[in-house]
């Protein structure tokens, strides 16, 4: 995935009616430049939709940076306190502005960016409408390279003249729209920078135009020219520390166009509805079958035992009655006490010493046997298990000397 950087021209040049072109650069995750050029914002829809993130560098003349001393506050309380902190330095109503505060320095002073809300909303919504997945808005003056002890500047040539971008410190910068007169722009830059040395970043075409002026007698002193390229802007933007888009709230970059999720959400809702309906239909079918089976069992039981008046569990009562009938005919059930105890006695007959049982109990169709200590060794235990298996019984030893004997799985039951 890649990041699309866009330098948007000043609002003043837009209001003048001049055709607007935006320098842009598509940068890969590794920092390599994939594509660059200039184009109107409306023609960048394909690049905007394909990029993972769009970084809009807002014109320095449209962003005012204020240095404000603020007490230590949480993010929510600082956001609520910002209008009161900057209202004396802002012309107009702070409610019409977007305010974003940077991190405090060692003295507790923060940089607060102030932008006209209506203008910023128009730009961010235009990017979202073209398919932007994530939008960040940075002050362009904080995206200039900066060296302590000097002033960084750039002259961006637009359709309505020059736009002067000035960065005086790590947290301070400004911008100004100027007519397209090179010498006047240099003199204005010198006046705004004071006595500090200035590094002026220019494109190769601008450098050829400004180099003769710098050698002339009217050239301001202390200005050195440097080649402007996108790597400077991209590297400096990572340490700008001020993102204006989240301050827009619901209209900002955190808002996602729900339209892009319409069909996935509809498909998910339809799949959920189909599954819920299918589960309910299957449950109703199984319930109907269960009622039919129970009714058939009740009819069979009543036909076999018409004198039975209370029928709670037809299957269990049928098994009980069959066992009683077999017992009356002299047929012992395989899991009955008499049959199991007789089979146990026959299994113990293989031992040389048969008096090994301390107690015998019958619960839940199983024999609970306690064995006298030190009467059955491992060899004798193996013989007893084999004798019981031959009689379709299985022996489990929950604790040493405590046996549980029941009919083996798969053996015929009453």
What do you see in this structure?
The mean pLDDT is 84. It is built from eleven helices and 17 strands. Helix 10 packs across helix 11 (378-390). It has three domains: 2-256, Nucleotidyltransferase, domain 5, CATH 3.30.420.380; 263-308; 332-407, Gyrase A, domain 2 (2-Layer Sandwich). The protein is α+β, with helices and mostly antiparallel strands and 414 residues long. Helices cover 36% and strands 26% of the residues.
Give the SSE layout:
Layout: E1 2-7, H1 11-15, E2 22-28, E3 33-39, H2 45-50, E4 53-58, E5 64-69, H3 75-86, E6 97-101, E7 109-116, H4 117-129, E8 135-139, E9 151-158, E10 161-167, E11 173-178, H5 182-193, E12 198-202, H6 204-214, E13 223-227, H7 230-237, H8 262-304, H9 314-328, H10 337-348, E14 357-363, E15 366-371, H11 378-390, E16 393-399, E17 402-407
Parallel strand pairs: 1-4, 4-8, 9-12, 12-13
Antiparallel strand pairs: 1-2, 2-3, 5-7, 6-7, 9-10, 10-11, 14-15, 15-17, 16-17
Helix pairs in contact: 10-11
